Amino acid sequence: MTQLGRWTRETLAELRASQFRPRAWLRFLAKSFERAAELRREHWRAHRQSLALGAGGLVVWTSVAVAGEPALAAIGAGWWLLTMLMLNWHLGLLERPDGSPLPSLGVANILSLGRLGLVPVLPVLKPELLATALIVAGVTNALDGYLARRRREETRLGFWLDGVADALVLGTAAVLLLPLWAVVIVLARFALPAAAFTVSYFWLLERPPATFDRARVLGIALWAGLVLAALELPFAFALAGVGALGGLIAAAASVRQARTASRAEASARPQRPGMLRSSISPMASGSTGSTASSSPSGSSPRSTRSNSSVPTPPDGRRRVLMRGREPAP
Description:
By secondary structure, the chain is mainly alpha-helical. It has a domain at 178-267.
């Protein structure tokens, strides 16, 4: 476990021990912000890149306001600032599977952030532009994974950014384009992993897995169904529904598999040595098989308890048992 992982586990353990009270949440957030400030200094290059991305996004939304859409520009700018704040809060997740840090954001993460920036625009696009935006988002979804593997930029931050971007883009498009029954399936498909990650962090005190079965073929079916729905082509709802339902089943299987692997890993960890358990026989006074307890004032014992499972040696010596093994005579 990395240093960040140990810090996270200890901080969450304190939060859970306080029964998630409001004051405990305030302490947790204060420690998280303090830790994030330290990690920003360590990941200074990624921090500067995030500032540049934030400034670039604000320039884009300012141009939208100048073009005559001030309300959309205000929503988009607020959304982009929130995205950048969350990014800077979680720069510590820029670590590869082996625990080594990634010095910069990486191209793959920037593509995922670009998909996140599309979310406020989707509701105002015309059908043809909405279909185009979904196609572009789908291409970047496939491209960021390829680039992450090719450039050794696979990180826990990238895994989360990719999943959040997919959930928000596809969830928004589903609400805009699909009937209610399909919307429920799509939202459940992304809500299940999110709920599993939340429980894993805040209740089980375990870091969520850094990989997850995305069910790529089913994901492609969902993307294609949404594009067809935007263009009002046949079989759109059925294709999107099949993709979402299959993705939901795959997500449930992945959550169960991750939980099983976590339990196996926990059981394989070395246990702390057990405490010595002693059974003290009475003084050699001819009595056998009983243990007496005396009061602090030296008065006669109030009760005796038979202990036939541990026989008293003839010489009255103390016998120490540790995990069922007796000392050599």
